[in-house]
Fold:
Amino acid sequence: MSGLLSKQNGALLLGCWLFSLVARANMWSTGYYPGWEQGGMPASNIDFTALSHVIHFSVVPNSDGTLNSSDNGITSANSVDIVSHAHATGVKVLICVGGARTESFFQQAITNNLNGFIDNLTNFMASRGYDGIDIDWEPLPTSDAHLYTNLVNGLRSALNAFPQHKLLTAAAGAYPSDGNPTAQYLMFASLQNQFDQINIMTYDLSGPYPGWVTWFNSPIFDGGYRFPSTGGLVPSINGAVSNFLSGGVSPDKLGIGIPFYGYVWNGGSGTTTGGVTQPRQSWVNAPTVSTPDYNTILASYYQSNLYHWDTNAQAAYLSVSNSIAANDMFISFEDPRACQAKVSYARNHGLGGVMIWELAQDHQSGQPDPLLQAVKQALASPGPVIIQMTNQNIVLSFTGVALGSYRIQWTDSLTNAAWNTLGTTNVSGASELLQIIDPNPIDQPQRFYRIQSPQ
Structure:
């Protein structure tokens, strides 16, 4: 991503001045929007300027290849609501098919009536005005690879028959757990040209399982930490992305998930004093885990003195110690810094974009949605850039976001395309104001600047 600024001597002699630059990324920002949420968050409440795509969640396959649109609230009125508002702002809307625990529904629909299933999906998409279809087959074991492949190839062929391009996207598990995860990475690599987006569900990366430790819901890095029980690295976004890339999936086909909810680990006992309050803790008696949304975490648990940022994992958490061990808590959640770090990670690694589950979880009527606004700011980074003259120096100032990586370059001619690096800078903490100085450029008749992210 880069943007262009210029200065000319005549303007410099007048003193300080301001150019505004909002650099736009060619990354997608895809948000899931469940039909059941539309009563509390109608589409008119969505800030579509933060999104490139919305996925309406979801219809479910019936065993005969027909579609169940009622269970998740995909009514005709709800379809009109989201499609009309999104299209008014130039945002694409897809209809999702599937969801958690829908494996058997897909199996039956494809086995019994693949062609009818595809026809029903494309007809539903077209009749409701959607721009494409998202496949959310969960879980997706290796044994279903041939069924999944047949569905994807058939859907892509049917969608190609429309006069305008129709999108086909997928939600993919971060760490397939059926004993042969490599096969799934290879499957997605073989199908990647059929998809416009493959969004990795990089959340739910922990749980109170045997042999585990307390860990984050959606950490960017593993920090080199290994399970004491097995010696294997704990899960992370970087680990999942690396697996897909090693399997042959192109980075520009991949998006990473940003959860607008968290994990509350409560109680547990045995190998620690009291209950669990930190990441990387073992136990004898397992803690319980709940998954409240961002709004609930802020309203019910958040206190500034409980907040911590794990630099190694690039993740936020609350640590709650009580006199009764059963009331101790380790709370892993996304805050604005964590959301922006994920956008920066995707950009720094040349990924296609980010995916949000789900848009209503940080929404309060009449107020800005803090996590969605953080994503929006990160996508627009470096945002407005101020250029000022200080003595004989030019000072460029802009706001960098968490994990952001920026290269500032200059040239005296746009025709020869010879760009010189003025400086590079990285954001190691939260969003911060960055300044780069161009010393004594006054002898140049003109000077052009650009900021690239990543470096």
In short: Confidence is low (pLDDT under 50) at residues 7-24. DSSP finds nine helices and 21 strands in the chain.
